[in-house]
């Protein structure tokens, strides 16, 4: 599969995630729950393509960040299906640990901050992982973290 095809695939499903999250906040009841479930499903579908793309480019920081965010994405799906407070404690702990580990791997891979771009990469890694985890926990601050990441 070509890199361009992977980017289109990952991009379409990432965009669908944003659309479904937007609809989640504009809906209520069962529609809200359905949009939340679909937002996590499509984000998880997009994940392998981004991991492959970043791996091909040898961007190990981005690979670590994407893999570190995966458990939080699964946690978000489980909470969307079961309801808040109904998720297994081990999954919550695993997602939090993976978030911290992904950030730690990113910091380790950075080594010394010798270029300005590394500061932006660290900010991206931090905001992506914290944003994904807080969105999974259905906290509105997750949107702020994601907005900062996208900025």
Provide keyphrases for this structure.
globular, 151 residues, 85% helix, mainly alpha
What does this 3D model show about the protein?
The chain is mostly helical and 151 residues long. The protein has one domain. The protein has 6 helices and no strands. It has helices at 3-26, 29-56, 60-82, 89-110, 116-136, 141-150. Helix 3 (60-82) packs antiparallel against helix 4, helix 3 (60-82) runs parallel beside helix 5 (116-136) and helix 4 (89-110) runs antiparallel to helix 5 (116-136). The longest helix is centred in the N-terminal third of the chain and has 28 residues, at 29-56. The radius of gyration is 15 Å and the shape is globular.
The CA-CA distance between the termini, in Å, is 30 Å
Oligomer: single chain
Average of the residue pLDDT scores? 84
Number of domain modules: 1
- The residue fraction in helices comes out at over 70%
Q: Rounded to an integer, what's the Rg over CA atoms?
A: 15 Å
Runs in which pLDDT lies below 50 for 5 or more consecutive residues are: none
Number of helices: 6
What is the element string, with H for helices and E for strands?
A: HHHHHH
- Give me the count of strands: 0
Main β-sheet, in a few words?
A: none
Class by SSE composition: mainly alpha
- Tell me the fraction of residues in β-strands, as a range: under 5%
Identify the overall geometry.
globular
Structure described in brief:
The chain is built from 6 helices and no strands. It has 151 residues and is mainly alpha-helical.
């Amino acid at each position: 599969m070509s890199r361009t095809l992977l980017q289109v695939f990952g991009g379409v499903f990432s965009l669908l995630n944003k659309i479904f999250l937007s609809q989640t906040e504009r809906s209520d009841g069962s529609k809200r729950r359905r949009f939340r479930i679909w937002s996590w499903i499509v984000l998880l579908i997009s994940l392998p393509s981004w991991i492959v793309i970043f791996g091909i480019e040898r961007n190990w920081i981005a690979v670590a960040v994407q893999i570190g965010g995966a458990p939080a994405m699964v946690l978000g799906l489980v909470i969307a299906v079961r309801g808040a407070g109904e998720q297994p404690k081990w999954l919550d702990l695993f997602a939090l640990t993976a978030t911290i580990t992904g950030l730690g791997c990113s910091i380790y891979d950075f080594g010394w901050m010798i270029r300005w771009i590394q500061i932006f990469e660290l900010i991206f890694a931090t905001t992506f992982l914290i944003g994904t985890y807080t969105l999974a926990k259905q906290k509105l601050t997750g949107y702020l973290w994601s907005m900062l990441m996208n900025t």
